[in-house]
Amino acid sequence: MSEQKLFKVTIDNITTEVEPGTTILQAARKIGGDIVPPAMCYYSTLKDSGGKCRTCLVKVAQGSAADPRPVPKLVASCRTAVMDGMVVENITNQQVLEARDGVVEFLLINHPLDCPVCDQAGECNLQDLSYGHGDDKSRFEFVKRTFEPENIGPHIQLHMNRCIMCYRCTYVADQLTEERLHGVLDRGDRSRISTYISKAIDNDFSGNMIDVCPVGALTDKTFRFKNRVWFTRPMDAHRECSKCAGKVHLWMRGDEVFRVTGRKDQWGEVHDWICNECRYDKKKVSDWVIEGPAKMSRHSVISVNKYYGLKKPKDFLPEVMGGRDPKMLMNIHDVSGVNDPDIDLSAINGPATSKTFEKKDS
Ligand code: SF4
Ligand code: FES
Fold first, then answer.
1. Which residue's CA lies nearest to atom 3 of ligand 1?
2. Residue 343, pLDDT above cutoff 90
3. Distance from the alpha carbon of residue 18 to the mean position of ligand 2, in angstroms
4. Cα(52) to centroid(ligand 2), Å
5. Pocket of ligand 1 (CB under 6 A)
6. For residue 39, how many C-alpha atoms fall within 13 Å in the half-sphere facing its CB?
7. Structural contact between residues 79 and 21, judged by C-beta atoms closer than 8 angstroms
8. Least confident stretch, 33-42, 275-284, 322-331
9. Can you tell me which atom of ligand 1 is nearest the CA of 184?
10. Which pLDDT band holds residue 319 (cuts at 50, 70, 90)?
């Protein structure tokens, strides 16, 4: 059998070889690094996803070796297959960067800026995208689109106002669950995710809709408002499960498991889908074999204070202060009449709370 000819593609001046049928986005991911276009709707493990959000737009400066003409319009890299000799520009093309800024501006037109109260904050693709491409002000002068709250079942909270219509959750329902009970209703700016009519989404793999949602439109009711992701420590864990691979991230704080999710790769995509039993019913440490701390991308706020293999510089302050903790740098007793001067803050385990100052005899 003759070997399949590989296609040569150059993206932002870096050349690689890929199999025919590979998309520009997949080729860019093979190269890796900053030249990879962002993707808000494409999801490699969901068939037919992509082509909805336009965040992955790139410029094809040369169509192929056989036909070197450029493609006149920017193309969606997640849906455009590579040709042999193709030359693509992403971060090296000003037109692409401006178009991406425009796409983000459009995505934010109707998206509420409620990150401080949104459970997705810290792991939201749109939040990350806004930091990279968003403006510090909005030109939108109209009232944002809003929807009445809708209960779509016992496990998943729908915040339709935050939805960016990426369709990923509908592909999960189509491809992983026995029956799809929700979909996109209506058209244009009235389009919305909904169940028809007010059915409850509750089948074995439906929880994966939460993991694929790039924003906070679908969140886990068992985790809602319980914690911020950056306060939790993600651990790799597994268990024997008859329905799924049982490989998960446990989001822990101390010995408490706050949330169970599928494991995401460097592109934020889950490969081993998990069942609802693992996700919602196994919240005890004893349910799991813990493998160790999950490796999180350094750019993520979740990795804050959880770098592994990093040598921290020696902290000289306690030594300089004769063993006293730095929190005593300012003696709060000198400036506040509320606190009890008999309490030695250095001797308290953890931060002081109102309980610390409760009078024994009151
Ligand atoms: S609810 Fe989330 S996953 Fe579903 S279409 Fe909206 S943004 Fe996408
Ligand atoms: S990721 Fe390509 S259009 Fe959305």
1. 213
2. no
3. 20
4. 6
5. 163-169, 193, 212-215, 217-218
6. 26
7. no
8. 322-331
9. 5
10. low
DSSP secondary structure letter of residue 86: E
- Per the CB < 8 A criterion, the answer to whether 218 and 158 are in contact is yes
* 3-state DSSP assignment of residue 89: strand
In contact, 90 and 100? CB cutoff 8 Å:
no
Whole-number Å distance between alpha carbons of 236 and 8: 37
Tell me the three state secondary structure of residue 176.
Answer: helix
Query: How many CB atoms sit inside 10 A of residue 234's CB?
Result: 22
Angle at 307 between CA 301 and CA 310, to 5 degrees: 145
Nearest residue (by CA) to ligand 1, atom 2, is 213
Structure-token pair, residue 340: 């009890």
**The Cα angle at residue 306 between residues 303 and 309, in degrees rounded to 5:** 115
What pLDDT digit, counting tens, does each position of 73-90 carry?
999 999 999 999 999 999
Give this prediction's pTM.
0.82
**Closest Cα to atom 4 of ligand 1:** 169
Find, among 208, 182, 193, the residue nearest to 280 by Cα. Answer: 208
Task: Give the separation between CA 357 and CA 217, rounded to whole angstroms.
Answer: 41
Report residue 330's pLDDT band, with 50, 70 and 90 as the boundaries: low
Taking the mean position of all CA atoms in its chain, how far away is CA 206? 18
d(CA 7, CA 23): 11
Q: 70 C-alpha to center of ligand 2: Å?
A: 21
pLDDT averaged over the chain? 88
Q: What gap in Å lies between CA 333 and CA 336, rounded to an integer?
A: 5
Is 52 near ligand 2, meaning CB less than 6 Å away? yes
Residue 349 has pLDDT above 90, yes or no: no
